[in-house]
């Protein structure tokens, strides 16, 4: 059965992370749905304009195998301020389903209250101003803790995306995708 993931996109998202994650998941046979917080194009942190598949409100009641948040600023702050994003993350977490966040986006997980009793990583300093009671922040490129996968930033996006591929499709598919990338 084909897996489906949701990637919410907010103005100011990190395009390298979003495109890398989306590209590798599609190569692995996963359906990727990008959803803007509102209708229309979304402008990334470096000015790239992306047209999402749909809006978040349109997919609020769908079930996803993974919800993944790209980082970037002010993208992560915009995701954190959106009640639909917070509600979707809490529902996903309550169902024990996979959640991913990279760069500054792990702070959205902390703000949603779903990072408690988890090990996470993030872009250096991105979560320092939040209440980290019962959250363990580690200095690793990618951290997989229970149902949450986090990563540090653009430089770790490939490793993060391959970890998500393996979590969704298995080690054999990850190896196939990774080998094809190397040529």
UniProtKB/TrEMBL annotation:
Q: What GO CC terms are in its UniProt record? A: cytoplasm
Q: Which SUPFAM superfamilies match?
A: Class I glutamine amidotransferase-like
Per the record, the domain of life is: Bacteria
| Protein name per Swiss-Prot or TrEMBL | Putative intracellular protease/amidase
For the DJ-1/PfpI domain, which residue ranges apply? 3-166
Keywords from UniProt, A to Z, are: Hydrolase, Protease
Question: Pfam families, from UniProt?
Answer: DJ-1_PfpI
Its Gene Ontology biological processes?
proteolysis
Gene Ontology molecular-function annotations? peptidase activity
CDD domains attached here? GATase1_DJ-1 (cd03135)
């Amino acid at each position: 059965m084909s897996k489906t993931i949701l990637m919410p996109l907010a103005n100011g998202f990190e395009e390298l992370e979003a495109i890398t994650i989306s590209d590798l998941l599609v190569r692995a046979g996963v359906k990727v749905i990008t959803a803007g917080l509102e209708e229309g194009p979304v402008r990334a942190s470096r000015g790239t304009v992306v047209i999402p598949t749909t809006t978040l409100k349109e997919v609020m009641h769908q079930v996803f195998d993974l919800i993944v948040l790209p980082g970037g600023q002010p993208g992560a702050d915009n995701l954190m301020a959106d009640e639909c994003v917070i509600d979707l993350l809490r529902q996903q977490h309550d169902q024990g389903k996979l959640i991913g966040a990279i760069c500054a986006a792990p702070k959205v997980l902390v703000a949603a209250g779903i990072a408690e009793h988890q090990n996470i990583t993030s872009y250096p300093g991105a979560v320092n101003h939040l209440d980290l009671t019962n959250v363990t922040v580690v200095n690793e490129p990618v951290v997989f803790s229970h149902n949450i996968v986090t990563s540090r930033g653009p430089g770790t996006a490939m490793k993060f995306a391959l970890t998500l591929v393996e979590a969704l499709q298995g080690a054999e598919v990850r190896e196939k995708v990774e080998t094809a990338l190397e040529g």
